[in-house]
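User: quick one, fold this
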Amino acid sequence: MRFKDQVIWITGASAGIGEGLAMALAAEGAHLVVSARRADELERVKAACAAAGPGDTLSVPFDVTNETARAAAFGQIMAKFGRVDVLINNAGVSQRSLGKDTALSVDRQVMEVNYFAAVALTKIVLPSMIEQRSGYIVVTSSVSGRYGVWNRTAYCAAKHAVHGFFDSLRIEIFGHNIDVTTLIFGAIQTDVSKNALTGDGTPYGKADNLMQSGLQLEAVIPKVVEGLAKRRREIVVAESASLLYLRLARLWPNELFRRQTKRGREKRKQAAAST
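Assistant:
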């Protein structure tokens, strides 16, 4: 068991990738701390983790954007386990609206959940990892953190910021025996699009075609766990189109821009036809 007896704190653990990682890491013998806003769903995940592996599982529901709640959650974990070996910043929210139609409050909300919450939790946990001279920080990002995407201005901005902070942090804490991994996902079959925010902050409420055609979660989780066990700096799990776009972003950005603007024109035509 590669994660036996390690204390692993996962945010956004009530569904999707967070839940999948919790189950897989429980089977690896880890002690789990599962966090999200929905206490009832966390209890369900806690029970499943208890059945999956021999470690303890602690449910700590809280809102990652609440400063007081973040500190209280860390205190509760330290009281139970006395340490955090691995922090997986997985909580997040996506967005489905054009930049011109998105309220600034929505831009701020997306940034708070995806970027500032991950940074804040990392800053809470990091001093204890430095003191114990060991630790592992993981943050969930997206291919949207590497290139721009139509209808995702706020989300892309937040994920680009995630890469900037955690790439820099990885350099700063080198030598403290603390690793930093960025998870870079393409389209995965989860409820991320249903829970995405529209321009006025209301939920998008439906699974878009991109998510429906994405990778199945059951195929994604083992690849992520394997990468975590090896402490890779980046773990990329994406379908073929996203992998191509990542390559274009690095080697041929003009071609990526051409393809993305073509897709945007197609989307505008579809939207006009449906009204």
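User: anything notable?
Assistant: The first strand starts at residue 7 and ends at 11.
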